[in-house]
Amino acid sequence: MTAQEKCPVILLTGFLGSGKTSLLNRLLKREEFANTLVIVNEFGDIGLDHLLVTESSDTILELSNGCLCCSVRGELVDTLLELDTSLFRQVVIETTGIADPLPVFQSIAANAELANRYRPAMVMTVVDGVRGIEVLDTHEEARFQVTLADLVYISKTDLPENSHEAVRKKVSQINEHLTILSDPDCIPACFSGERTIPSSKPHASHDHAQRYCSVRLETQTLLDIPQTAGLLHHLASTIGEGLLRVKGFVRVREHPDKPLVVQVSGPMVHDFGVMDHWPDGHEHTTLIAIMANGLQIPVQTTFDAFCGNLAADTPDRQALTENPLSVPGHDFRR
C-alpha cells in the first residue's frame, strides 16, 4: 500500500487550556475535514472533552483512564486496529494537554499492521496566544509538543490581552523549521506524504500521576451566571498557577435547558459559551479540574462551598467571598 493510500493520522496537541477543542470544532466544520474520525484522550480516569466536540457521536471516540504517551498507548493501538479505514478520510487524535506526541506516532510505526494501514501525516500543536510564553517557560511538556510539531497554531489572537507576536518569536526559537499560523482557516487538512518518525530522542518525562491530578466537580444545585463567574474567578485567584485547567458544563437558572460552557486556563477565566442542548445523561453541572498534585482538596472544598455542598469543616460561601484574596469588583454573594 502506498503512502497516499494509507489513512492519514493527524496529532492535535497543545498544553492544557491552549484551545485544542475549540480549534477542532472549527476545523470539523470545513469541507476538508468532513468524514474525519476523532479520537479524544484525556488525563485521568474522567472524561468530558469528547462531549464538547460538536460532531455526531459515531465519529468521536474517547480514550480516558490515562495519557496516550504512556498508560493507554495499547488501547490506542487496539482502537486503530479495529477501525475500517475505508470509512474515514483521516483520523485526528486530540491528545491530553500533558502528552508527549512522539510515543503516539512511534506506536503506529512499531506495529506492522498499523504501519501498513496508517500514515503519520502531521503534528499540529496549539499554543496559547495569551499565556504561551509563561506556559512554554514553565512546562516541559509544552516545549516538547512544539519541538515535534510540523505546524503551530497560535490561539486566542482575538483577545485584547494577547501577546501572539512574542509567542510566535518564542515558538520559533524552540523550533525554527515549523509553520506558524494564527488563522484556523489556513490550516491544511494534512501534509502530503508520510511523516518521518524519529526512532528515539529525548522527550518529556511521563511521571504525570506524580505531578498532576484531576478532579470531577459535580452538583445538582441550580447555579446562576454571576455565581458561576464568582466560583471560577475565586478558584483562579486562590489556587493560582497550580490550577492548570477547569472545563465543563454548568446548569444555570438563566437557561437551564442549555448548558453554560466554561473554561479556566491558569489564572484566566474565558468568556462563557452556550450549547444548544445537553449531552445525553449530563443535565447537571459537571466540571473537570486539572491541577498540580496536592491541590485537589482545596479545589473540591471551594467548589462545594460555592454550591452549598457543605461537609464537616468546610467553610461556607460567605466566608470564602469575604476572603481578602477574592477578586476585586465581583460580588459573588448574589
Give your account of this protein's structure.
The protein is α/β, with parallel strands linked by helices. The chain folds into two domains: 3-186, P-loop containing nucleotide triphosphate hydrolases (Rossmann fold); 211-321, 2-Layer Sandwich (Hypothetical Protein Yjia, Chain: A,domain 2). 29% of the residues lie in helices and 23% in strands. It is built from eleven helices and 13 strands. The chain has helices spanning 20-28, 73-82, 101-110, 112-117, 132-138, 140-148, 164-174, 208-211, 225-239, 296-307, 317-321, and strands spanning 7-14, 36-41, 60-63, 90-94, 118-128, 151-155, 179-181, 212-219, 243-250, 260-265, 268-269, 273-274, 285-292. The strands form two sheets. It has a seven-stranded parallel β-sheet with strand order 3-2-4-1-5-6-7, sandwiched between helices. The longest helix has 15 residues, at 225-239. The protein is globular and about 55 Å long.
